[in-house]
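Appendix B, record 7
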Amino acid sequence: MERYLIPVAGGDPILVTRPKTVRHVVMFLPAPTEPRGGRFGSFTQWAALWADRGVASLVADLPGGGDSTVAARPDAWVRQAGAVHTQAEMLAGRKPVHLFARGAAAALLPAVRGAGVRIGFSPPLPEECRRAVAMLDDDETPDADVLSSVIGLHEVDQELDGDVRPLLNWAADQLAEVRWDLELHSAHRPPRAPSAVTFSDVDALARLEITRVGIGHVLAGLFDELADMTNWED
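Structure tokens (predicted):
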């Protein structure tokens, strides 16, 4: 396994974890404000776990999150996600590319499925994106469930989150359409996708490590099945 960065013109570099033999490729889109490794290093854990099974991973550093140096504008968000997708397709060749988006980043998933599967991790409702904006503006009392689903945090951090408002307003419009095939969500949130994996925590990345690792193993075992289009036929 090797890890390296791919530069992006006008954007932040892409972090790649590549096994010796690539069978699948996963593209990670973190939630707004979320660090590239996942809130508690989950994406890094999963990338290493999946590399043992022949899955390469590419993680975006989206504008408005992590260590990104790019202004958090919707066009920059879309452009950075497109750059990661292009690199994922190049690495995969004819192999499946799975798209994994957390929180409001699910708005960046394509409307049409490709050779892989589109996975939405706690994708928020459009009205939850708008409520999160109101919370950032101090117009509404913070709701930990809404915030964790939208931006990956349980509480408002004005200094960190203030510039993501344009992203959330844009995402609210996009999320009116379900753009994911498989949904990972907490038990009290009804899924919108036809297939779902539920977990007991409000936020699987913020509490028990056993939950995070368990989800990683479940997905690792499903990639072959998920990439077979006949398994999604009625």
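Remarks on this record: The mean pLDDT is 83. Helices lie at 42-51, 74-92, 126-136, 144-150, 158-161, 165-174, 209-226.
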